[in-house]
Amino acid sequence: MPIAFPNSLHARDVEYLLHPVTNARRHEETGPIVIDRGEGIYVYDDEGKGYIEAMAGLWSVAVGFGETRIADAARRQMARLPYYHSFSHKSNEPAILLAERLVRMTPERLTRVFFTNSGSEANDTVVKMLWYVNNARGKPEKKVILSRQNAYHGITITSGSLTGLPTNHRDFDLPNIPVRHLTCPHFWRYGQPGETEEAFTDRLVAELESVIAEVGPENIAALIGEPLMGAGGVLPPPAGYWPRVQEVLRRNDILLVADEVINGFGRIGTTFACEYYGIDADVLVLSKQLTSSYAPLAAIVFSDEIYQGIADNSAKIGTFAHGFTASGHPVSCAVALENLDVIAEKRLIETAAEKGEVLQGVLARFRDHPLVGEVRGLGLIAAVELVANKETKAKFDPVGRVGAYLFNRGHEHGVIIRAIGDQIAFCPPLIITENEIAEMVARFGRALDDTAAWVASGGLA
Ligand code: PMP
C-alpha cells in the first residue's frame, strides 16, 4: 500500500533521492523533513514548524540562517564573475584576498593556502601533498598517516580511511591507505579503572612512541587530529595531551596536521583550537564555519617547508598535478570573506567562550539525570552521553536506539540535535543568545524526559 506523505514533495523525495548518512529503507517509510527556510538559530519545515538548530546544520552555520549580507555578497560576485578556475596560473580576487586573510589569521608558521570544496577533499589533498613532497625528497617510504579511533576526517576513500569510526569503514573496504588508528583520547570512556587523567595521557603518549618504533619513523608522514574531536562524539583531549604528542612527533620528524574543520573560527572559544591547546601545527584544515556553509569551501593552510617541497618538485616535473574544478571558486571565496566580516563585526569568536560557559553550565545539570553518563564540551560545542548504567558506564544495547528515540522526540519538541549513537551533540550557531541557549536546552530536557519514560516503560525491550 502506498504510504501517504503530507505532500507530493515528500513523495518525490522518497522516489528520487538517496540521502547521505541515512537508513534508506526507513526513509522510504518515514519520508523527509523538508527544511524550507531559516532565520537566526531557527529553521522551518515546509509545514511551517520551527526548530532550534542546535547543531548549526552540520556543525557549521556560525552566523545563523538568515544573513542576507552573505547572500548579497554571493549575488554581487555571481554577477561579476560567477566562476573561474585557478589552474595554470589563473586566479581571481576573492581567492587571493581570502588566502591572504587566512594566512594572517592563522599562526605565523603557516604561510600558504590551497582551496578545496569540502573537508574530505581537503584531507585527501593533505595526504597527497605530503606524499608528493616525500617522494620528491627521496623518502618514498614515508607514507603512513597516524590517526585516532573515533576521529572524523571525512568520507572519501582517503579521508574516510583517516576517519576512525567503524560505521564509516564497514562494507566500504576502508581503510585502504596506510593508516594506524591510535587509542581515542577520551578519558571518561577509555581511561582504565583507577587511572588518573595524567596517567591516561602518559599511556597515550607511550602508545604513540611504541607505534612509531614499530612502524618506523622513516615510514610515517604525519599524524592528523582534530584538536577537540567532533563527529566521533565531542571528545575533549585529556590534560597535557597535545604538547606531549607534539614533542614526540617533532623528535621523530613526523608532521602534525590539525583538522579544525569543526573547531575553527571560534567554536571552542578561541579563533582556532590550536591556540587553546598549544598546538603548533604544520598544516591546518579549515571548512564549515569558514563560509558558515552558505557555500561549499575548505582551505588547507600550511607551512613554508611543505610549500617549498611542492614548488621544487612542480618545477622539476612540470606541474603540481592536483586540483579541483572549483578550487578557489570566486563565489565561495566571496561568501567566506563576507562571513568572516560578519563573525568579526558581531564579535562571535570573542563572545563564544562566555556563551560557552553558559551552555556548559546549563547542560551540567543533566549530570544527575538517570540516563546521563557524561556531560562534556568546551565553548559552544558539547555532548550528553546516555548510558544504561551510570555507575558502570555500560552502554545501551543496542547502541543508538535510545539516541535515535531522543533525536526524534527532539523534533517533536522543536529542537534539532544530533545523535552519535547514544551521544547527543550540541553545536549551535555562534550567534545564539543566552536566552536562546536556555530555550534550546529546555526543549532538549523535555525530549530527554520523554526518552527516560520510554526506556522505563520497556521501550528497548
Ligand atoms: N574533518 C572534520 C573534523 C569534520 O568534522 C568533517 C565533516 N564533519 C570533515 C573533515 C569532512 O568535511 P566534509 O563533510 O565537508 O567533507
Explain what the structure shows:
The structure is a single chain. The protein contains 17 helices and 15 strands. It has 461 residues and is α/β, with parallel strands linked by helices. It has two domains: 33-63 and 347-456, Aspartate Aminotransferase, domain 1 (Alpha-Beta Complex), CATH 3.90.1150.10; 70-345, Aspartate Aminotransferase, domain 2. A seven-stranded mixed β-sheet has the order 4-10-9-8-7-5-6, sandwiched between helices. A hairpin with a 2-residue loop joins strand 14 and strand 15. Helix 6 crosses helix 13 (304-317). The longest helix is centred in the C-terminal third of the chain and has 23 residues, at 434-456. It is globular. The model has no long low-confidence stretch (mean pLDDT 97).
Chain-wise SSE layout:
Layout: H1 8-16, H2 24-30, E1 35-39, E2 42-45, E3 50-53, H3 56-59, H4 68-80, H5 93-105, E4 110-116, H6 119-136, E5 144-148, H7 157-162, H8 166-169, E6 179-182, H9 187-190, H10 197-215, E7 220-225, H11 241-251, E8 255-259, H12 273-277, E9 283-286, E10 298-303, H13 304-317, H14 330-345, H15 348-364, E11 372-378, E12 381-386, H16 401-412, E13 415-416, E14 418-420, E15 423-426, H17 434-456
Parallel strand pairs: 3-13, 5-6, 5-7, 7-8, 8-9
Antiparallel strand pairs: 1-2, 2-3, 4-10, 9-10, 11-12, 12-15, 14-15
Helix pairs in contact: 4-14, 5-14, 6-13, 10-11, 15-17, 16-17
The structure holds 4'-deoxy-4'-aminopyridoxal-5'-phosphate (PMP).
